[in-house]
Amino acid sequence: DGLLFFVISINLFLVFNPFGYGEFLQNVFTPKPYSNFVFFNEFQNFRLIGTQMNSNDNAVILSLFYFYYLMIDSKKWYFILILGVLIVLTQSRTVFILTVVLTMLFLFFSLKNRMSNMRFMLSSMFVGVLLSIIVLSSGNLRSLFNGEAFRSNSLMVRLENLSSALSFDGNSLLLGRGTILNPIDTLGVYIDSEYVRVILQYGFIGM
Fold it and tell me: What is the pLDDT of residues 124-155, one digit of tens each?
């Protein structure tokens, strides 16, 4: 609980950004000042990096806490609520989808036998409306539903990265090529995927 309180405190400080100190602190956690400037100053483009190098990694950390409290220590519902909001603010599409799907499955199996069919249906509709409002208020998450996420240049770059990673010999795929400090000099391309970066450097064993 103490560790989570510390992580949430830092994330909330970044969200509320008092006197610009939240943006300053986010620049400490990730060396991308231009991206951070866009996150804090462009409408609907805010992405919460928290204590990580990027917002996707922050979403993973927050989701691990989220599922711990959802499935193991659910009496502390306020932590679940705060973590859910923070995960949305990271605008990590992959983690958002996994979190929603796994939460729905967990609630379906845990609540179905405790609630009447009518109450279960009403609760499901309420959650659906709430999720729709959240998605519509986020440019990055909205791209999942209007198709832009699957037509984006970023997605194509990641697919090309994956193709490059899988083209290496078996030993490289299994054990990796070691730490790559400059992917453009080493591979000739910029690696735009955390997963491909791990496969290239540490192989499937590292993944």
Answer: 677 666 766 666 666 666 666 665 555 556 66
Report the sign of the C-alpha dihedral through residues 172, 174, 180, 184, in that order: positive
Q: How far is CA 188 from CA 5, 123, 177, 178, 185, in A?
A: 42, 51, 15, 16, 6
Task: Give alpha helix (H) positions in 72-193.
Answer: 77-90, 93-111, 117-136, 139-146, 153-166, 170-175, 183-187
Identity of residue 83: L
User: pTM for the full model?
Assistant: 0.62
CA distance 62 to 65: 5
Long-range residue pairs from 63-68, CB within 8 A, at least 24 positions apart, any chain? 63/87, 63/95, 63/98, 63/99, 65/4, 65/7, 66/99, 67/102
The tokens 């659906």 sit on which residue? 128
